[in-house]
Amino acid sequence: MKLFGHRLTIPAAIGLAIVAINVIAALGAPILAPFPEAEVVGDAWAEADATYWLGLDNLGRDIFSRLLYGARMSIGLSLLITMLSFALGIVMGFTAAIAKGWVDTLLSRGVDLMLAMPTLIFAFVVLSVLGTDIPVLIVTLAILDSVKVFRLARSLAVGISALEYVEVAKLRGERLPWIITREILPNAMAPLIAEFGLRFTFAFLFVAALSFLGLGIQPPAADWGSMVRDYREVIALDVPAPFYPAGAIALMTIGVNFVVDWMLSIHASSHGRRA
Hints:
The chain has 275 residues and is mainly alpha-helical. The protein has eleven helices and two strands; from the N terminus they run E-E-H-H-H-H-H-H-H-H-H-H-H. The chain has helices at 10-27, 29-32, 63-99, 101-116, 119-130, 134-161, 164-171, 176-184, 189-212, 224-231, 243-274, and strands at residues 2-3, 6-7.
């Protein structure tokens, strides 16, 4: 089986299936979920039956419905964070590589300073001071993640900008935005797309970790990290509830990594053939 002209491996097919199922669950949550995410529909920790497929949680809410709504929140939020971090990182990285001089030095030293600080602790400080509203969470995590995108984007742009067609564009007097969008970005897309998958996984796990620690998505909104936190107390009581959101987090992470590994192998083989 092929996808986009490349042979699809078994792990990649499994990964794509996992990602597709999760995306469908996220997009179709309002239709697929039998109950609203915050509605109390029965007794706490009621067992699974024909009505409540996975049982009820600590407040009597339907776990299956919350898993579906949690997919929308966890995946959607992580996607927004990753998209914003890439927009910031790529623009800064390409600008530093092309402009060089003091612009490159200023941006690179600023990124080094950000990387010197532990990401989790820095996020704790910012979110504790500014609050845990979703816009604050998105911007904070996007900025923290953009410094890693910056290093890759700058490295790619340094190599590409030394090629003849970029030098010709500079001699023609093309402006910086034109060179970035027309010359550098198209030739750096393959590794950037693979990196996008990796950064999405990081954002996905980071959001889940923050929610588990109480600094991410706040109740009554459902997301998988906060669901694990809410259900952790019954792990020793033979109640399977904590394993549903934890398993969803693990499966999504594995699925994305399978796809990213496949994309990296495609890029490596294509680069080898060109060499």
